[in-house]
Design brief:
alpha+beta; Glutathione S-transferase Yfyf (Class Pi), Chain A, domain 2; Neurolysin, domain 3; two-stranded antiparallel sheet; 28 helices; 56% helix
């Protein structure tokens, strides 16, 4: 790192290495970016004047420039997700337009674009490695999708659209966070909390204390229920008070759909702008534009897969609802005559408890977070030969609950690191779970010495926090979520690609991104893995065998409904980004209700404003790409089937298959097309058979 006087004033300008989270304050953001963006704009001008159509004369200096920007801007975006505050929002809003302006300048630079095309057409092309060639090819494609070829007026309009879309996506996210935070239900009598498990009573009393009820206890209340998942979900599953379930459900499905936090106008505007972007670039619709950089060849191919899954799951979902209704009737429930949305979680949980004779709550004591992590780390050692150890204290963190870990290879050398931020913090942290890049793997040469910079990942979950001196006791779903995010992490951490442009998840077709994450979820049901992580938090006794058998039996409980739900989301997303045109007779909400006719068994309520909370497609990366979860699940189920075929109990075969998976799917990242990578691992192209078999749905398509 060259000496730089600004570093002392601006931790955000360090530009490399681990972010100094303890020193970063929202009030530093604007001044840091004023300085950084001016410097980078100057560097870009210099590069444009001196660029050479060679790897070292073009790609290396361009990567250094973009990495400086990504390092600083990545920190600000990361903190927006995990440590949101009014001050940070204001700073983000002030700086974002200038950042996007620079990104547009980079994407639309004629000298850089022409240098990339010269490099591809030149004599040096054959000397580049496949990973380098894919980076160059993607750079040309991305420049074209960034409007590099547009005439001046169209390019200015393109840039204005990009600017507005970024603002709208941030606003959408903030509205949703604020709307989720704004609602709470304070319960004061034992009758109002009837049926609620002890874990939720403790969490709700803790929430009440945090809100100012100093004497709140799990036994006597008051209890504060919120729309945050660790609170909302168990309440809907266990509360015997149908009126309160209805109240909470309606609050949940109408989040960010009214008043100052209404996302409906934002949705229509976002969709209109995306269509305009597609028009400018010569595509019929935004879905076509989105698929240019994905595995799926076209909209028709995505629709074909979704229709295959829809027809395989629809009748099963109808049967699920009929069985649930019959079960509620057999229990003498008055609502059985007309089961409503707020009854489904409650009765599904009762039916599951009776059918498989266990409750989700009974399992919590067997899944304390520290023990689950031990089991997860034992699995990755068994499959991939890597060792994960705590490295707390070696990296500054943004919250005291955040952990830091080292990943080492067989000979004990460190190969990667990651942060884990496990618990829900509804006041400042957005919901859901995700993996993000902190530092990319890359070969660097300084003072004539070449070394490999090790990758670092952020793993973020929103599970139940520790309550009243106990560790975080996880639901099985929270365990699956942790495994899912760790799968994403592994692809970033175990990459062998030394060019950051294709290392880990970079340059990877987006509909293949969920392969490693969904692959890891399968192991939660595998005997050796489950017993290594399921031990009672006070006695240390392993999970009783009967629970394991019940978990296996319950795995495909209502799986037709679960698949249909994902198909519904995917088709709504695809329809909105392919055929829908804002400003016509239909609204986006109308489209969703129309698609629901064939993709839901219980139609959404008229007031259901699900789209106002569909962050994946309106604030995240999944616009015209939500189908990726199902597309990649076909790949991940087929990948896991390779281990089943090798013999799950055959340790030598598992290690060999794990090694092959590590050397292909996890190591190659974006350096090859995902279909080539999959073929290298599996020896053939993927098939939907494994997915439908895992979900118990094969007979219905036979």
């Amino acid at each position: 790192m060259s000496a730089n006087t600004t570093i002392t004033h601006h931790p955000l300008l360090q530009g490399a290495g681990l972010p100094p989270f303890t020193q970063i304050k929202p009030e530093q953001v604007e001044s840091a970016f004023a300085e950084l963006l001016a410097k980078l704009a100057q560097q870009l001008t210099t590069l444009e004047e001196t660029v050479q159509p060679t790897w070292n004369g073009l790609v290396v200096p361009l990567e250094q420039l973009t990495e400086r920007l990504n390092w600083s801007w990545g920190i600000v975006n990361h903190l927006m997700g995990v440590k949101n505050s009014p001050e940070l929002r204001a700073a983000h809003e002030a700086v974002q337009p200038q950042v996007i302006q620079l990104i547009n300048q980079l994407g639309q630079s004629q000298p850089i674009y022409h240098a990339f095309k010269e490099l591809r057409a030149g004599e040096h092309w054959q000397t580049l490695e496949p990973a380098q060639q894919r980076i160059v090819t993607a750079a040309i494609r991305d420049a074209e999708l960034s409007g590099v070829g547009l005439p001046q007026a169209a390019r200015e309009r393109f840039n204005n659209i990009q600017m507005e879309l970024a603002e709208l996506s941030t606003k959408f996210s903030n509205h949703l966070l604020d709307a989720t935070k704004a609602f709470s239900l304070t319960l004061t009598t034992p009758a109002e909390v009837e049926g609620l498990p002890q874990s939720l009573l403790s969490l709700a009393a803790q929430a009440a204390r945090a809100a100012g009820e100093e004497n709140a206890t799990p036994e006597n209340g008051p209890w504060r229920i919120t729309l945050d998942m660790p609170s909302y979900s168990p309440f809907m599953q266990h509360s015997t008070r149908r009126d309160l379930r209805e109240k909470l459900y309606k609050a949940y499905i109408t989040r960010a759909s009214a008043g100052e936090l209404d996302n409906k106008p934002l949705i229509e505007r976002i969709l209109a702008l995306r269509q305009e972007l597609a028009d400018l670039l010569g595509f019929a619709n935004f879905a076509e534009l989105s698929l240019v950089s994905k595995m799926a060849p076209d909209v028709a191919a995505v629709q074909a897969l979704l229709e295959e899954l829809r027809s395989a799951s629809y009748d099963a979902a109808v049967a699920d609802l009929a069985a649930l209704t019959a079960f509620a009737a057999a229990k003498g429930a008055l609502e059985a005559a007309d089961l409503r949305h707020w009854d489904l979680s409650f009765w599904a949980e009762r039916q599951r408890e009776e059918k498989f004779a266990f409750t989700a709550e009974e399992l919590r004591p067997y899944f304390p977070l520290p023990q689950v992590l031990d089991g997860l780390f034992a699995l990755v050692k068994r499959l991939f030969g890597v060792t994960v150890t705590p490295a707390d204290g070696q990296a500054p963190v943004w919250h005291e609950d955040v952990r830091y870990f080292q990943v080492a290879d067989e000979n004990g050398s460190a190969i990667a690191y990651f942060y884990l931020d496990p618990y829900s913090r509804p006041a400042e942290k957005r919901g859901g779970a995700w993996m993000d890049v902190c530092i990319n793997r890359r070969q660097v040469t300084e003072n004539g010495v070449t070394s490999v910079r090790l990758p670092v990942a952020y793993l973020i979950c929103n599970q139940t926090p520790p309550v009243d001196g106990q560790p975080s006791l996880m639901t099985f779903y929270e365990v699956e979520t942790l495994f899912h995010e760790f799968g994403h992490g592994l692809q970033h951490l175990l990459t062998k690609v030394n060019y950051s442009g294709a290392a880990g998840i970079n340059n990877l077709e987006w509909d293949a991104v969920e392969l490693p994450s969904q692959f890891m979820e399968n192991w939660c049901y595998e005997r050796t893995t489950l017993f290594s992580l399921a031990k009672h938090y006070t006695t240390g006794e392993p999970l009783p065998e009967h629970y394991y058998q019940k978990l296996l039996a319950a795995r495909n409980y209502m799986s037709g409904s679960a698949i249909l739900r994902q198909v519904h989301f995917s088709l709504v997303d695809l329809e909105l980004h392919s055929r829908y045109r804002p400003g016509g007779k239909e609204t986006a909400a109308d489209v969703r209700h129309r698609v629901a006719q064939t993709t839901t068994v219980l139609l959404p309520l008229p007031e259901d404003a699900f789209l106002c909370a569909f962050g994946h497609i309106f604030e995240g990366e999944y616009a015209a790409g939500y189908y990726s979860y199902k597309w990649a699940e076909v790949l991940s189920a087929d990948a896991f089937a390779a281990f089943e075929e090798a013999g799950i109990d055959n340790e030598a075969a598992i290690k060999a298959t794990g090694r092959r998976y590590r050397d292909t799917v996890l190591a190659l990242g974006g350096s090859q097309h995902p279909m080539e990578v999959f073929r290298a691992f599996r020896g053939r192209e993927p098939s939907t058979t494994s997915l439908l078999r895992h979900h118990g749905l094969l007979p219905s398509v036979a």
